[in-house]
Description:
By secondary structure, the chain is α/β, with parallel strands linked by helices. The chain has helices spanning about 40-50, 100, 150-155, 160-170, 185-200, 215-220, 230-235, 255, 280-285, 300-310, 325-335, 345-350; strands at about 1-10, 15-25, 30-40, 65-70, 85, 90, 115, 135-140, 145, 180-185, 200-205, 225, 240-245, 260-270, 290-295, 320, 340-345. Helices cover about 25% and strands about 25% of the residues. The model has no long low-confidence stretch (mean pLDDT about 95). It is globular and about 60 Å long. The chain has two domains: about 1-160 and about 315-350, Quinone Oxidoreductase, Chain A, domain 1; about 160-295, Rossmann fold. The chain has twelve helices and 17 strands.
Amino acid sequence: MTLAKAYAARSATTPLAPFSFERRTPTARDIAIDILHCGVCHSDLHTARNEWGGTTYPAVPGHEIVGRVTAVGDGVSKFKVGDIVGVGCMVDSCQHCQPCADGLEQYCDNGFTGTYDSPEQVSRAITMGGYSDHIVVHEKFVLKVTHAEADLAAVAPLLCAGITTYSPLRQWKVGPGSKVGIVGLGGLGHMGVKIAAAMGAHVVLFTTSPGKTEDALRLGAKEVVVSKNADEMAAHANSFDFILNTVAAAHSLDPFLALLKLDGTMTLVGAPATPHPSPAVFGLIFKRRRLAGSLIGGIAETQEMLDFCAAHGIVSDIEPIPMAGINDAYERMLKSDVKYRFVVDMATLKESATA
Ligand code: NAP
Ligand code: ZN
């Protein structure tokens, strides 16, 4: 066992604060990773504040991890000490059900093990995430990072925001000739814009923040629509092949469904604490429109996404923060005041005093 320095939420209503706990000694198939950077996902906030219910405290969030391998178990073949690697939202799954066999570990029939606040497969101990100085992970759930070392902080958000947008864009076959809407320009949304544009789609960004227009165009959107403006919305009626909705708060889906053309799909990846109002049935049946959901992506697809982003020069637009700045970052995230992902520089945790 090794002592990990971390930041944890001890209840839904108290700020995150220094915390330490034991990480397991690497077993034969495990990799020990010194965490360099960890992105700050809105799911971290939902979990820390128990907005989805069921959070186990103390909770150490963080599932956008980039680090350096410090030790490998005897049976590890994929990685060696010194490699730069990533860990995303999952650290294990049952590895014997059909979804796992198909590389869809996120849909594991027996429940995948999330990187934080999730029971381990055998011990059922609750996992602790990337707001910590190191982590031990089964090699199957560790990703190779090939981006330049100078980009590593900006690579971290690909491990959740990147794959969560890449997977549905691939699933719904977005490419040249597709008209694609991305709803919300936050951590997920800005990756969705970049990736859909790199796939060759005509990207339209929907935002509630008119001040983000220039950024959206720079990131790869061809058009920007302020979603509260009914006239701007109406100009796009019945025209989209696919809309990816990343919004972290409950809202009416009907104005977006009305923009889908015949057989078009809107996929929800945003996971608000309270449900969206039910969509109007007529908005769906008249154009055989589809409303779907999507959860992160499998391990093989996450590697594919990292390689795609490396090949296309895609990283996240980030604001680095010290670990002690996490509570302020959460407040700013709630105000949509982040361009476009906070990433914790884990050196700041290693240098700080232990709790
Ligand atoms: P984020 O950085 O906070 O971005 C969310 C964006 O939604 C905001 O930037 C804002 O964009 C828009 N928004 C926020 N509040 C809104 C409101 N009241 N009405 C309309 N728009 C609003 O969050 P994130 O990290 O991208 O995560 C987004 C959601 O996805 C979270 O719920 C998270 O838990 C979930 N998530 C799901 C998965 C999955 O596998 N499905 C994976 C990761 C995260 P504008 O300013 O442009 O309007
Ligand atoms: Zn996430």
